[in-house]
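So, can you check these tokens?
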Amino acid sequence: MKIGNIDLGEKPLLLAPMEDVTDASFRLLCKEYGADMVYTEFVSSDGLAHDSAKSVAKMRTCDEEAPVGIQIYGNIPEAMVEAAKMAEDAADLAGGHGPDLIDINFGCPVRKIAGRGAGSGMMRYPDKMVEITRMVVDAVKLPVTVKTRLGWDDDSKIIVELAERLQDAGIQALTVHGRTRAQMYTGEADWTLIGRIKDNPRMHIPVIGNGDITSPEKAARAFADYGVDGIMIGRATYGHPWIFREIRHYLHTGELLPQMSVSDRVELAKRHLALSLRHKGEKVGVLEMRRHLSCYFKGLPDFKQTRLALVTLTDPAEILRTLDEVALRWGDEHPAAVSVYE
């Protein structure tokens, strides 16, 4: 699968952009475990327009995570154009590698974004959605892609027709999450319309499916049943960045890898913490690791007090000692008892 000149190989696996999750440390881990492409947290076009230091910082990437996309969102065409130009110049503005492509977020369902017409809120205004896309494509030299949903609600699943219009506006790949905005993340993702996009003879850009890919078997079925060119994985990566390695192994061999032991997860959590501290400093690095640390040990018995410690401690040395205690106490726990697929 190619996006512009970016060759991602056959059946690529992509890390979804997720706010407060896909920072540099997590992107690097996912890349290490086989993600073919990663994305930044989504960046507000309004924040960039007001020169927000936080928004600019989100655009910093490094060579080791390439190819990497910067995702932007907003509902004002001019601001989105300016944000795309700033994203294209991210290496100068924020330092680091800079993006290989720019992705437009027309999919985020959270109220503070969708409620004001950005993210998946744009599904209510498809003409404006296409207009913004065309303006962004015309404003930058990098490939532009879009991530969106099936529609606003069950009565307005417009994605099959909209996919053609977005392609005609110049995007070079389309990612579709198999839910409407009204569904948020409830119920099961419906991939049938994603399959219809792929079956449309007018579509010639890569179509990437997203939603409920939580195991190697589900990934294999998505490729086989719906013909997507690639798969994007989001929430299933929480505490489980090695899912990319597991899926790739299954696609190649038809066999499941043994689940990672508790001791190995402890070592991974330590490396994740070290990366977070390196990229964000001690205070922010510790705070932003809390959402990840307990996820690495989901399902462990009698873990409540240890989990509480991992999400409240502020001293990195104390966190490391607590992780060592996890290895000592649960390191021999049978991996099946802490299945990440549950």
Notes: DSSP finds 14 helices and eleven strands in the chain.
